[in-house]
Amino acid sequence: MSATPRRRILQAGALAATGALLAACATDTSDRYGTDTGFVSGDGVATEIDAADRGEPIAFTGTTYEGDAFSAEEQRGHVLVLNVWYAACAPCRKEAPELATIARDYADKDVTFLGINVRDAAGPAQSFEKNFDVPYPSVPDTDAQIMYALRGQVAPNAVPSTLVLDPEGRVAARISGLIDASTLRSMIDRVLGA
Q1: Range 45-193: architecture per CATH
Q2: How do strand 45-48 and strand 61-63 relate by DSSP bridges?
Q3: Residue 165, SS3?
Q4: What is the model's pLDDT at position 129?
């Protein structure tokens, strides 16, 4: 075989391999990756944990964007809903109006909501809260101290994530990814009824 046909065969093989690689790279992952920031979104899996199987109480402190101290331990005796988010997260923006409505609906039922912002400085975070009329505070966690306290409960790259803590401070339910409002309401209701 002369050098020219061999070269053509090698070129054709290289082109085929390149084409296969480009096709694989073109796979649509927009349902898992935020188009603007490269984050991995949770898949919306909802999990409830029987009271007998719940782990240790979650303990963390923080300071809200408004400058108020927050302690998870001080919320014992109440149901606490934690939502992990940041302003540029597309699913976070999509679920914000529903979370705000649910927080208002449960405000007089001994349920406290808290946002945990994993990326933003005060400006973008407060603008998001104002834009979506969020009625509950958020604490910044850019140093991942709160996320460390939530290890094993929230995947560090699954944003948004929502946890429902029982009155003892234990994780009773979680949603990894965009919330479904009726699912979250049912989770809160079950924890309130327990």
Answers
A1: 3-Layer(aba) Sandwich (3.40)
A2: unpaired
A3: strand
A4: 97
Q: What is the mean pLDDT of the chain?
A: 84
Instruction: Report the length, in residues, of the chain.
Output: 194
Residue type, 26: A
Q: Is the peptide bond before 91 cis (omega within 30 degrees of 0)?
A: no
Average pLDDT score over residue span 132-144: 97
Place of tokens 């994993």: 118
Map 62-109 to HEC letters. EECCCCCEEECHHHCCCEEEEEEECCCCHHHHHHHHHHHHHHHHHCCC
Confidence bin at 17 (pLDDT 50/70/90):
very low
d(CA 136, CA 192): 19
Q: In this structure, what token pair is assigned to residue 106?
A: 């449960």
Q: Which stretch of DSSP H or E encloses residue 129?
A: helix 122-131
The predicted model gives 160-171 an average pLDDT of 97
